[in-house]
Amino acid sequence: MILVSRFWTKIFSLGKADAITIYPFIFLKKRMFKDNQQLINHEKIHIRQAAELLIIFFYISYLLEFLFRYVQYRDFYTAYLNISYEREAYANEANFDYLSQRKFWAFGQYYKK
Ligand SMILES: [Zn+2]
Q1: What percent of the chain has pLDDT over 90?
Q2: Given this model, what pLDDT does residue 93 score?
């Protein structure tokens, strides 16, 4: 379900993103982002990842991997881009058939790179 809220998108993303998925909701900073199919597909990939990890384990492992990547790269944005879940979402956001073909726990392939 898509919700447009500049306030909550900023709160959940620490002011850093145009969109964020807090299962089962996709928060968008601006209404116009609803038309950005690639952005919506990216967030839907996160919805699928979260569902496959019973939601709570997705968020815990997302934060832990972010910390691990931050130690690795020493840069907030590089660390974020290299979280396995983000690697999978960015690599496939332009493929609109991706979610219909994707294998269970596909993010696992993106851990090592
Ligand atoms: Zn993402």
Answers
A1: 98
A2: 98
